[in-house]
Amino acid sequence: GEIEHELRNAVSNHELSLMFQPKINLATGALAGAETLLRWYNPRLGQVSPGDFIPLAEGSGEILTLGRWVLEETIRQTAQWYRAGLTGGHCRMAVNVAARQLTRPDLAEEILALLTEHGLPSHCLEVEVTESGLMEDMEQARRQLKQLADAGVSVAIDDFGTGYSSLAYLKDLPVSTLKIDRTFINAMGEHQQDQNLVRTVIAMAHNFGCAVVAEGIEAPDQARTLLELGCELAQGFWFARPMQAAQFEQICRQPP
Ligand code: G
Ligand code: G
Ligand code: MN
Ligand code: NA
Questions:
Q1: Could you tell me if residue 242 is inside a domain?
Q2: Is residue 49 assigned to a domain?
Q3: With a 6 A CB cut-off, is 52 part of the ligand 2 pocket?
Q4: The CATH number of the domain where 69 resides is what?
Q5: Which ligand is nearest to the CA of 54?
Q6: Per the structure, how many domains does the chain have?
Q7: What value does the CA radius of gyration of the chain take, rounded to a whole number of Å?
Q8: Cα 67 to middle of ligand 1, angstroms
Q9: Does residue 83 lie within any of the structural domains?
Q10: C-alpha to C-alpha distances, 41 to 49, 60, 96, 139, 240, nearest whole angstrom
Q11: CA dihedral over 105, 111, 116, 117, signed as positive or negative
Q12: Which of 182, 185, 244 to mutate to test ligand 2, by most ligand atoms within 8 A of the CB atom?
């Protein structure tokens, strides 16, 4: 299709950019980091949503080229902020890694080489993987994530709870963060059962030694409830929308 055709030249034509969505420490309100989100503007197609082009890129294999660009651009930008003293050990950048990237035998080496090249400490980076991404080739994923974690890169499970997968993988993987999917956060106000579900996920995460990020917080009462339930971190429109690098830099400059 036309989108796939145009996507093939997106990197070389400089059509990609990154947005940064802050993550907030719920107890203190301090900035804890950000998730980088890919954006694509094509002169013929206009702005194309990642919800539309990421699945196509996964199917065509182009996700490897896009994913490599996202990793390098995230690490380059974060290293620049790190050198400027804007993002310390408290501020970690999280990058989405697709299934097709996770099944590559040299993913971890590639990421660690980028960190070295740009002079960014490994603790400043987190990779976000989905449950379905893990399931594609569990053995390879385990190998790559272990190599990254051993080197100090954090591993987060994205969209947690939506994967219909067995939870057994949690005990075998070096996961440090669970991100509760926003559909559960959304439903929390309306149904007691959904609040119980979120409470249970938080307790389970803590039992595995993981921190919890609640995604898609859009209202202050959700933030209050999640703090009461022991959730550490929050990401959502109530706190901040995905923003350009220049705006994120401004936020980093503000005292907590
Ligand atoms: O930014 P937005 O909420 O529109 O993202 C829609 C979807 O695209 C989300 O599921 C998000 O995880 C995914 N996405 C955004 N940026 C990236 C990226 O750099 N890599 C991958 N693999 N997925 C991304
Ligand atoms: O699947 P992933 O968690 O990577 O998706 C991130 C996507 O979620 C981004 O596209 C971002 O724009 C979106 N997002 C972030 N915060 C909120 C929110 O509070 N509400 C909604 N509806 N979407 C959000
Ligand atoms: Mn994500
Ligand atoms: Na998510």
A1: no
A2: yes
A3: no
A4: 3.20.20.450
A5: 1
A6: 1
A7: 18
A8: 11
A9: yes
A10: 9, 19, 19, 36, 22
A11: positive
A12: 182
pLDDT-based confidence at residue 102 (cuts at 50, 70, 90): very high
The string of pLDDT tens digits covering residues 148-196 is: 999 999 999 999 988 766 788 888 899 999 999 999 999 887 788 889 9
Q: Which helix (H) or strand (E) holds 59?
A: helix 50-60
Q: What angle do CA 99, 166, 38 make, to 5 degrees?
A: 30
Identify whether 206 is part of a domain.
no
Tens digit of each residue's pLDDT (9 = 90 or more) over 104-154: 999 999 999 999 999 999 999 999 999 989 999 999 999 999 999 999 999
DSSP character at residue 122: G
Range of the domain at 80: 2-175
158: Cβ below 6 Å to ligand 2? yes
**Taking the model in full, what pTM does it have?**
0.96
The sign of the dihedral angle between the CA atoms of 133, 135, 139, 145 is: positive
- Of the residues 18, 20, 37, 58, which should be mutated to test ligand 1's pocket, given the most ligand atoms within 8 Å of the CB? 37
- Alpha carbon distance 19, 105 (integer Å): 28
